[in-house]
From TrEMBL:
One of its GO terms (molecular function) is heme binding. Coiled coil: none annotated. This is Cytochrome C. Keywords: Membrane, Transmembrane, Transmembrane helix. InterPro entries: Cyt_c/b562.
Length: 160
């Protein structure tokens, strides 16, 4: 009889743990900010990593445009690839704890953006028509606009 009660308690604790982890996986460590964006709360080091990655994305867009403008397709493709899914893989060990703090919608947008850089790099390498590449870059930068309009990174100590 005691084993049955112990088993019920263990199952209940297991379910509570799974539900809690699921909640944080989906919503992350977030709150609504005063400007209606979703505030993502990170440690100072995690915040710095995310902001550094975002600056790298902007530098890559600049490098792509510069390379395309100079008809240096290799330079443009390398700029795009530098922040593709290879970057995500290289940061995997640093971002494991951050991924639990990010909402699913932010993760989808971020991974989609990195994949888009790889897709554009492939088009550049094939020297596809410039208007097609520019259209893809337009879609790519829309991800940036949506992200910055929807989210802000705050320190955990600023959590309201």
């Amino acid at each position: 009889m005691k084993h049955l009660q112990f088993a019920k308690i263990a199952i209940l604790l297991w379910l509570v743990t799974i539900i809690t982890l699921g909640y944080f996986f989906y919503y992350g460590n977030t709150s609504k900010s005063l400007d209606t964006r979703t505030a993502i709360h990170l440690t100072p080091a995690e915040r710095q990593l995310v902001l550094t990655e975002m600056r790298a994305l902007l530098e890559a867009v600049n490098g792509m445009l510069n390379g395309l403008g100079e008809k240096d397709y290799e330079k443009a493709a390398k700029s795009a690839e530098a922040v593709g899914m290879g970057l995500v893989a290289s940061l995997e060990h640093q971002e494991k704890t951050i991924l639990l703090k990010l909402p699913v919608s932010f993760k989808k947008l971020g991974f989609g953006t990195h994949e888009k850089f790889d897709s554009i790099a492939a088009k550049i390498r094939k020297k596809e028509e410039i208007h097609s590449i520019l259209k893809d870059m337009d879609e790519l930068t829309k991800n940036c606009v949506v992200c910055h309009a929807s989210y802000k990174i705050e320190l955990e100590s600023e959590k309201k």
